[in-house]
Design a protein that fits this description.
By secondary structure, the chain is an alpha/beta fold. The chain contains eight helices and seven strands. The longest helix is centred in the middle third of the chain and has 15 residues.
């Protein structure tokens, strides 16, 4: 296989191993825990078992533990970052780190988790090779390891270049194609490094009403290329 350039490499374990060897961290994709805490608290009780996919070296799960969540499993495709995080949080029994590919979570039984949090992992897969097939595999596994009525919190970017995977018109089609979910859509503004989440113009915990199937009403309300992150809160439909 040749060397992949740009965002195409995001789907390759070697890219992330190399990145984490040279990145001191921590680095949180899109939003840090304090910004998302009101939404997490709204949908996920503190006694629930949580899976964080594509955890990287982020401090997000540490924030979950500080906030009272007692059972947080973290997976990543990079053995380099998993080993580093296992050492870093060896004294935090609430946090467990495992090397695993989100497209094949066969180490977990069906219905193992009450909630799954994804900040950027599906985005990364959609930037890689065979993106549609790999995204379908990931969403199938997400649905499998979630309990009935479990919550999948998907935080994504609204791309402003030729890649528009984050827009509701695209992402809702992708999610509904798996036929697992009822979906609520929340929006949070991107923050500058020193900006407080208190300056958000829109209330995070208030979802958009999805007035049509394709999400176009949301895009019309926000305008062209909004400087936001979309948060899809997907509840698993009863399967039996």
């Amino acid at each position: 296989m040749g060397t992949l350039g740009g965002t195409q490499a995001y789907g390759e374990p070697s890219y992330w191993d190399d990145r984490y060897k040279n990145e001191s961290g921590p680095f949180d994709w899109y939003q840090k825990y304090p910004s998302l805490a009101p939404l997490i608290n709204l949908y996920i009780p503190r006694h629930h078992r949580i899976l964080v996919v594509g955890c990287g070296n982020a401090a997000f799960s540490d924030g979950l533990a500080d906030d009272g969540y007692q059972d947080v499993i973290n997976i990543d495709i990079s053995s380099v970052v998993v080993e580093a995080m296992q050492k870093k949080y060896a004294n935090r029994p609430q946090l467990k780190y495992m090397k695993m590919d989100v497209r094949d979570m066969s180490e977990f039984d069906t219905g193992s988790f009450d909630a799954i949090i994804d900040k950027g992992t599906l985005d990364s897969i959609l930037c890689g090779q065979n993106s549609q097939q790999n995204a379908a595999k990931m969403l199938h596994e997400i649905g499998r390891v979630l309990k009935d009525k479990g919550i999948y919190v998907l935080v994504i970017i609204c791309w402003v270049s030729r890649i528009t995977y984050g827009a509701p018109s695209y992402r809702l089609r992708l999610l509904r194609g798996s036929s697992f979910w009822t979906i609520k859509l929340h929006v949070i503004e991107k923050l500058c490094p020193n900006e407080s989440s208190e300056h958000q113009k829109r209330e995070l915990t208030k979802p958009f009403v999805l007035e049509d199937d394709d999400g176009s009403s949301v895009e019309e309300a926000l305008g062209k290329n909004p400087d936001v992150h979309y948060i899809y809160v997907c509840t698993k439909v009863l399967t039996g």
